[in-house]
Amino acid sequence: MPRPVIALVGRPNVGKSTLFNQMTRTRDALVADFSGLTRDRKYGEGRYEGHRFIVIDTGGLSGDDAGLDAEMARQSLQAVDEADQVLFLVDGRAGLTAGDHLIAEQLRRHGKPAHLVVNKTDGQDPEMAAAEFYELGYESVFLIAASHNRGVRSMLESLFPDMLEEPEEDEADKWPGIRIGVVGRPNVGKSTLTNRLLGEERVVVYDLPGTTRDSIYIPYERHGEEYTLIDTAGVRRRKNVNEAVEKFSIIKTLQAVEDAHVVVVVVDARDGLVDQDLHLIGFVLEAGRSLVLAFNKWDGMSVEDRESVKREVDRRLPFVGFADKHYISALHGSGVGLLYDSIHEAYDSAMTKWPTRRLTEILLGAVQQHQPPVVRGRRVKLRYAHQGGSNPPRIVVHGNQVESLPDAYRRFLENTFRKVLDIWGTPIRFEFRSGENPYAGKPNELNARQKARKSRMMRHVKKNEKKKKQKKRRG
Predict the structure, then answer these.
(1) Residue 38 in contact with residue 71, Cβ under 8 Å?
(2) For site-directed labelling of 112, which of 37, 225, 412, 415 has its Cα 20 to 30 A away?
């Protein structure tokens, strides 16, 4: 099932970005003690008890916005449209304001399930701080101190019991073959590439950014093999594209990445790599999906520009050295057919199963080549490895003191396994587990013979100590 989406809205400087950082366990949102710092929507992945959801941080609303504030308000209300649930934050120290009343009225007009969150209740009686906010008419009111992470966990427990149940069977499991997600910024040629991969006009292509609004699953066959292509922005007839009701497809893109086996990230070669491309690649890696990079609009570029792009790719993308990079023209079809070879190689690497014996041999060979470090006077020992899952490949390494392994040695192990197993196009997840001491916390039970021996030893020790004291007094 698609991951639930939660939007954080409220007046400026009520703590939305601080709560965003707590829910996503990151510091991605800028936080400072003045209003208006967040202007655009910011998306993050929240995790709770093994379940995941998407959090949207928004700029501040005042209820009567103009100029730049009006654009921030539009961004915030668009986030409300995208969300499944809305958290309306208010400032428990500042008290109820006219702006809070206006925002509450706007949220009621949108009709989305909304919940009141009274923030900054630390240092005062929470119930007293929240008392005046009850006149806004919300049934569920949560009292938190986001800066201290107080009340956030209990809020999630009571707020989303249905959302956080065990996920149902993934909708994408209904689609056959290798699922290929095509993602990228608006107007980089995703739909044109989709049509080339399909070999027919199946997706609306229009020379304006953001033509596609939703994701679409397209099952098809090629050379007797089944595929499902996921175009991360969807099909809509041109006459139905209405900017007034446009919903930018970030949410659908993130969900399509989760559904795919292999993700083709399309980059506009003429624009070069931009931060949004890097964020998208990072999300694909965080999701553990196989990756293929396609630099589109390669036709018509000069030799100097092409060399400049390749140097920039080598400089800014060393962390995805395992991913194939293709320089293509989706419009003319040059280089598109080669994508399928990389897609198959990445899929096979992500889904391959290896026996425990094989993985343990590679681990012991790596240890023999380069010993783990010595920690607290004892060398870290790595004993055996086994596979813990696929897509992405997950390798579990057992040993002692593994929590003390430095990042450099972990990267050495990853590179060794990747090279020996010929894993290409997919990230690898490593888990390190220490064996538990079976006698930890248990008293040492002595039998009768051991007790008698211990008693004799103690008498002998005391006798020697007595002699030493007597000798010391005489001397």
Answers:
(1) no
(2) 37
Residue ranges of the annotated binding site are: 10-17, 57-61, 119-122, 184-191, 231-235, 296-299
Tokens of 41: 């929507």
Task: Please give the annotated binding residues for GTP, written as ranges.
Answer: 10-17, 57-61, 119-122, 184-191, 231-235, 296-299
Distances in whole angstroms, Cα of residue 387 to Cα of each of 112, 154, 207: 43, 35, 46
As separate numbers, helices (DSSP H) first and strands (DSSP E) second, the chain gives 13, 17
Report long-range pairs for 273-279 (Cβ below 8 Å, ≥24 apart).
Answer: 273/312, 273/313, 273/316, 273/317, 274/185, 276/185, 277/184, 277/185, 278/316
Concatenating the DSSP letter of every residue in 326-366 gives EE-BTTTTBTTTTHHHHHHHHHHHHH----HHHHHHHHHHH
The pLDDT tens digits for 306-317 are: 999 999 999 999
Which of 3.40.50.620, 3.40.50.300, 3.30.70.60, 3.40.50.2300 is the CATH number of 5-159?
3.40.50.300
Task: Report the percent of the chain where pLDDT is more than 90.
Answer: 26
Predicted confidence band of residue 200 (pLDDT cuts 50, 70, 90): low
Q: Could you tell me the end-to-end alpha-carbon distance of the chain, in angstroms, rounded to an integer?
A: 86
The amino acid that residue 167 corresponds to is: P
What is the C-alpha to C-alpha distance for residues 462 and 422, in angstroms, rounded to an integer?
A: 66
pLDDT of residue 168 exceeding 50, the answer is no
pTM of the model: 0.62
Lookup result for tokens 């060399």: 307
- On whether the CB atoms of residues 252 and 234 are closer than 8 A, the answer is yes
> Hunting for tokens 């890097």 — which residue is that?
278
From CA 65, how far away is CA 68, in angstroms rounded?
8
User: Which residues contact residue 134 at a Cβ distance below 8 angstroms, ignoring those fewer than 6 apart?
Assistant: 141
Give the residue among 394, 246, 418, 396 at the shortest CA–CA distance from 322: 418
Q: Amino acid identity of 198?
A: L
